[in-house]
């Protein structure tokens, strides 16, 4: 009977889709629009989270937040290597960021020796008026890349981000 799982998570995706903002919301319940600087080098945080639907079971999320900007990417691949979960983020207000998802899938497939699963996340759902990618398009992409979980959220919405990690936790206990 498992009650504790430690898992390595990498945050991947184009620059400015909101990877660091999602991590900050998960860790600190905080969103500061406009204050998030582009990530330059991979950044590690960890959090032990109770998975509420399961009762007392907990997951230790060991999260590597990576840099999306092309000039910093060469540093990123070594962090894929033994990841258990790849969270690939796109921005629902930026169609091009969805097209970039394939690049990250290829990279993680190439560099990761572990068994891992993919979580495709459409972020910035709060910006309804600027949406360029529908939920159906996101779901189709998730299917195409073989993502195990598809999720839409906003780094500005605490509940949506906490729920994302709850879903991942539930999935980990099902494996
Ligand atoms: P890199 O580190 O360069 O790869 O970018 P990133 O993916 O970490 O993006 P970051 O978290 O730095 O966010 C980029 C910008 O988008 C910042 O100005 C954030 O405040 C904003 N942002 C992130 N998530 C959201 C969201 O859900 N809604 C809105 N409205 N803005 C967001
Ligand atoms: Mg960042």
TrEMBL record:
- Source domain of life: Eukaryota
Q: Does the keyword Nucleotide-binding apply?
A: yes
Name the residues that span the membrane.
none
Among the GO molecular function terms of this UniProt record, one is: GTPase activity
Region forming the signal peptide: none
Q: Which UniProt keywords apply?
A: GTP-binding, Nucleotide-binding
Identify this protein by name: Gtp binding protein
What species does this protein belong to? Stylonychia lemnae
